[in-house]
Amino acid sequence: MSEFVVHGGTLALAWFLLVNLVTSAVLAVGAGWILRRSTGTDSAAVWFAVRVLPAATALLFVVVVFVPSYWKYEPRDFVEGFDVTLTALALGAAALLVTAIARGVSAWRGAVRRTRVWMQSARPIAIAGTAIPVSEIDIDTPLMALVGVLRPRLLVTRGLVAALTDEELAASIAHEVGHSRARDNLTRLLMRATPDLLTATPAARAIERRWASAAEHRADRMAAHDGPVARCALASALVKVARLTPAMTPLAEPISTLIDGGEIASRVERLLTDATPSAGRRSALGWTALAGGAAATAVVYAPALRFVHSVTELLVRSLP
After folding, report:
1. What is the pLDDT along the chain (320 residues), one digit of tens a residue?
2. Count of structural domains within the chain
3. Rounded to two decimals, what is the model's pTM?
4. Residues 6 or more apart in contact with residue 100 via CB below 8 angstroms
5. Which domain holds residue 181?
6. End-to-end C-alpha distance for the chain, whole angstroms
């Protein structure tokens, strides 16, 4: 039984790498077309799903298709040997997983170190309307940042507090509260720790930039729910902060800042148009597509298990 399990684990890792490789390659080649065709799509959830698609597809295939197929059709009394190619694929998948974990840990530790430096000069300040702890810090660059993944806190520089009016400060804080409610720092960390081969390509960075832009627009919308005054105040704050802040590379750590997503002009324009797009129709279409996909999956699931087992057997016998 132990050999059966070990052999199955090796095959699972090999399948994870192969599906990951194919999906990453397709997405890397088609990313430019997807980005051009989706210029009007500002759903952060959509871009996050696109970014983690290779790893999610590989994991779902292994858990939902390969493992049940192997468990149902693989004989327990006979286990094939471990050939060189299969073992190499399994080791490659293991290396991919370990590298992704290390990348995530590095990003998290970088955020912790950066936060500790900022907190050396911090003092708590009371801000009405938010339960998130807010601290004022003393650094040269004007900054408003949401730090922390599980226990977020908001950091604001003294210079920025002095530069913004009370209405602009309140709207900016509401924007960062929007990031907190959407768990954007956690999302940043998950994208950083995604175990896929897409990470090393320009496509991954382009998709992450599109996600960052969409996340900023979403946080703007959440802050703008307080009405026209809040929208105008946030637009004014964005312009002020952009003028005060020198051009900088977006942070690699899971930290959300007021202007991290760039595209200040489009954000200000959208805030001042006094329009909030409705997601009702998109939501209905999404649920309809999900229901149709679930029905189709139920029909082909059993034949798919047998087919995957046959393909697995063919690969094991033909690999050197």
Report:
1. 688 888 889 999 999 999 999 999 999 999 888 888 876 667 899 999 999 999 999 999 999 999 999 998 888 776 665 678 888 999 999 999 999 999 999 999 999 999 999 999 899 988 776 788 999 999 888 889 999 998 899 999 999 999 999 999 999 999 999 999 999 999 999 999 999 999 999 999 999 999 998 999 999 998 888 788 999 999 999 999 888 877 656 667 888 988 876 678 888 988 888 655 444 445 555 556 566 666 666 678 888 899 998 998 888 888 77
2. 1
3. 0.86
4. 55, 193, 194, 195, 196, 199
5. 2-318
6. 25
